[in-house]
Amino acid sequence: MSIRIVVNADDLGISEAVNEAVFRHLENRTVTSATILSNGPFTAQAIKRVHRFPECSFGVHLNLTEFKPLSADSQVALSDILDEQGYFNGNAIRETKIGVPTLRAIYREWCEQIENVMRMGAQPSHLDGHHHVHTIPQMLPVLALLRRRYHINRIRISRNLYTSQSLPTPGMLARKRLYNRALRSVGFKTTGIFTDLETFVRLCSIKPPEKPTIEVMTHPGSEAHVGESRLLDSDWLTALAYQADLISYKAL
């Protein structure tokens, strides 16, 4: 079984340091994909450089947790998840009731985030969520509408590979499997496994994973992921005990 790995860098556009680190890894081909934070403070700067990497995939990092929303009506329609300054208020989206009006507002906001990336010159290859907000179960119909509207047919699944120290409850794992199945049922192409780079190397260096396609999440340039950055700079791929190839989301 041939193993194919997407190495995705999250948070492109969040800072100059992250931008520089992501593009360095893209140039070195240690990262094959990145997701753009459409409302990030350094997004325009980042998108000016994506055309240099036609072999890589660039997706949209759908956001409901940080920075100001982009849609004109979000300040009112999404006020329950904004702070006093009108910025997305961290984990508030997971602490508030998500009814139909909120889902409609999220759809409009995410449309604007996708279209903003497109206006600045990047054609999105896939979707995922900042702080994994796209895996909140109520978001499934919103994602299905986005897929049909923008023909973005690839998406990150809910994480399904863990160390024993971080393993969710059996019930949570079952819900994750159902959600991942639901993403595929509405037409999305996905990898078979999603996890972070450190977990993948810890669990799969000797024995290959059970699925042939894997996405590993990375955060180049982030001060919160120093260990991960050191690993990304290492020869982790050639140290695997089996053959694996790096691909982008375009190859799914």
Can you give the helix content as a percent range?
A: 25-40%
Q: Strand portion, in percent?
A: 5-15%
- How many helices? The count is 8
| Main sheet: strands, sense, barrel | 7 strands, parallel
- At the first level of CATH, what is the class? Alpha Beta
Question: Would you identify the CATH architecture?
Answer: Alpha-Beta Barrel
Shape: globular
Q: pLDDT average, as an integer?
A: 97
Q: Radius of gyration, rounded? A: 18 Å
Quantity of strands, as a count: 7
- Class inferred from helices and paired strands: alpha/beta
Distance between the termini: 16 Å
Order of helices and strands: EHEHEHHEHHEHEHE
Q: What do we call the CATH homologous superfamily?
A: Glycoside hydrolase/deacetylase
What's the structural domain tally?
A: 1
Can you tell me the residue ranges where pLDDT is under 50 for at least 5 consecutive residues? Answer: none
Would you give the CATH topology?
Answer: TIM Barrel
Walk me through what this model shows:
The structure is a single chain. The protein has 252 residues and is an alpha/beta fold. The chain has a single domain (3-251), classed as TIM Barrel (Alpha-Beta Barrel). The protein contains 8 helices and 7 strands; from the N terminus they run βαβαβααβααβαβαβ. Strands 1, 2, 3, 4, 5, 6 and 7 form a 7-stranded parallel β-sheet that branches. Helix 7 links the parallel strand 5 and strand 6. Helix 4 runs parallel beside helix 5 (140-150). The mean pLDDT is 97.
